[in-house]
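Q: How would the structure tokens look for this protein?
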Amino acid sequence: MQIDVEKVLASKAPKLAKRLPRFIIRYLKKIIHQEEINQILDKHGDLPPMEFIRSALGDMGVTWRVEGMERIPREERYLFASNHPFGGMDGVILAQEIAAHLGGDVRSISNDLLLFVEPLRPLFLPVNKHGRQSKEAARIFEETFAGDIPIQTFPAGLCSRRIKGEVTDLEWRPSFVKKAIQHHRTVVPVYVEGQLSNRFYNLANWRKRLKIKANIEMLYLVDEMFKQKGKHIVIHIGTPIAWEQLAEIGNPMKATEYVRSKVYAMAPAKVK
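A: Here is the predicted structure in token form.
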């Protein structure tokens, strides 16, 4: 059970993988912390997903606190909608807390690249952002939404960026609202406190100014995760929103902005 950058590249971008020089491959292995990740997998890889999350983050000294989960009744079917400051770690922490509170399983809508972290694979409801979604994946996606397992999603699709001096999500996509209404799921707003390094945001902004389409800053997300060693993360759970209330709004984009406003209303006030 190991992560191998070369195999991931060969799977996701075979033409590119053949052209990349060796020094680039070595650099990629370094910035995604291949050796450290494989050490974690060697140590904890046989654990079930929730235990793996607690143990791996425990080794990194990452702690967290969740406020407001007690307001979530156990008998409903939920879709948790969250901002996305960390691009991965926030998702696994939230998944662990949802499963602990609701006493069962959970699924997270995630980039299918995360499926290469084998112990976490059972948690993910993958979305292929690098090609077409397979018929089988689409079937599983629909069946999961139609079932009772709680689902978490990050409607921005990508982790937060610094926009006009503020760290905030990119535009939220309305698909989660449509799915919540279609499958009669209660939406739970979630706000995760935190941000990445100035390097990440500056790289994202320069990439945009230079009109480079490829999200090259995403290469550094694992490195950013390891920079969170020893940090304490706070997650705020908001008041559930009935799917009927979202349906009454009528316009999916307006309903999406309504949920987003509820998420960011939980952000702590800045000290001036």
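The CA atoms of residues 79 and 152 lie 6 Å apart.

The first strand starts at residue 63 and ends at 67.

Upvote if useful.
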